[in-house]
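Notebook, p. 212. Picked up where the previous page left off. The plan for this session was modest: take the two constructs that came back from the sequencing core last week, fold each one, and keep the raw output in the notebook itself so nobody has to go hunting through shared drives later. Recording the first one now, exactly as returned: residue sequence, then the structure token string.
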Amino acid sequence: MYPVIFKIYGLTVYSYGAMLALAFLLAIVTAVFRAQKLKIDSQVIFDLGIVVILSGVLGARLFFVLLNFSYYAKNPAEIIRMDKGGLVVLGGVIVSIIIVYIYCRVKRLDPFDIADIVAPSLSLGQAVGRLGCFLNGCCWGIPTGLPIGVCFPPRDFMPAEYWGIPLHPVQLYNTFGNLILFCFLSYIFKKRKVKGEVFAFYLILHPILRFGMEFLRGDNEKAFAGLTVFQIMSIFLFIAGVIMMAVIRKNKKLKVKSGKK
């Protein structure tokens, strides 16, 4: 793969970091566009974008470190080495939701409108971010005999048994799935009838995608009942999304007025 894009004057530009930067940029730009539809100041979204970036990355890294605590306890200096990969997307989403809610309360913003604005951008950002995983060679899939299989070169964080054999390009599957989800959520945003509906759909549909993709992942161990930690987290997020959808649709105060988004 291409973990390093180029080196110039002692500066190394990693594909993983570059794709993350692009993901955040596209996420913020598309969120600003939707915010304008609701007549929300673009600066609010830019500021919120910084909050999401910081809380998302820190949350995603924190979850990864906790899930691999035995390794990082022995190698604490590796905690900040994100150039090798090592972000738990679901962890970043959970932490971001909490921080963004607090931010909305402090700034007196409607958390449901903000959640609907951000939801499609989350999927777009994850789609681009997974391209970074593919280029970096992390988050690899299980062996496959299909023509679509990809052989990754030896990497120090990949078990030797996966070196040089065709693996499911699960990173690309995730990219494709998240792009579809982005398009669907963008459509729902234009047609939404209840505030929070778009975000509720995200909480329902993204966990389904992640749950399925985990069966093709070769880097995550089973934790309970044959499921990985991320599948268990996905189940809880899915339930939260279903409950949220049921609650908001019964709340008349969250109805979107006709002619307004």
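Okay, moving on. Second construct, recorded in the same format:
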Amino acid sequence: MLSELVKKVRDYPGLSRKQAISRFVDILKPVEDFGHTVLGFGDDAAAIKLGDEYILFASDGIWTQLHSDPQWAGYCSVLVNINDIYAMGGRPLALTNNVSFTSDEEGDSIARGIRIACEKFKVAMVAGHTHPDADNLSISVSIIGRAGNLITSSGCNEGDDLLIAIDLDGKRRGEFLNWDSTSHKTSEVAIGQLDCLVELAEKRMVTAGRDISNPGVLGTIGMLLETSGLGAAVDLDAIPAPENIPLDNWVLMYPGYGFTMTCKPEKSREVIRIFQERQIVAEIAGSITEDEKLRIRKGGEEEVLFDFEKDSITGLRG
């Protein structure tokens, strides 16, 4: 039943832990802009205007659930940052890291994972800081990128199509809610697939977008809507999904390569074609509504997943 899925999504820690964002933003908002900030809190990356282009900044800490596999955690610390830059329509330039570990072996595993990802996506890791005598493992990575045109989280319009693009060529990573769609690909393929987002930004094909991250596909759609101050009706059967993963797991899973975006209906087919040319499955999964509610539908059932007049994910409401 959809009511059970609603509860599972709303209770999922990958989503519920986003509640803490608003507390920090409330304190830091006064120092968000001293004259150069174009986009700050609320997007996948911040944007600073520099001449004819934008400099993009993002930072991610790796969820403790991945710490049991330090090499994979190191790999993901790079991957999530790279996705944040491409989600904004940009290309990454360089990374830095801040890593804590409890043993040399653990530190070496993290570093190997970071190196593998940097080699995969051809992005330099240029500096960092280590805590070799820490009590707990911790991994944070920051990134800088550049863009000519931006894809933002706040550009949705009522009547836009809601599209979801996911690379289904992968497999579940152990027991994690992670779909590994990148580690087995060549650099040429992996970077070429991400360049879809740059093409969409340069051609101004989409009105808004986010990368699908730890909150899962439905949670990420919720964040997009919350930031835009709008709602959506989503057909669960239209979400690209592998055959061997149950829906209630798939909608919570980090897909490695996954983006949700909105566009004018007359542009949807062209957006889908751009992804399909790079072997990415993209589908129209719903439409944007004015009522600030995220509705999900399946088999004749409908439930409200979020009502942003009273619900909050990050608290960064449009």
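Notes on construct two before I forget. The chain has two domains: 32-147, 161-307.
Flagging for discussion at group meeting.
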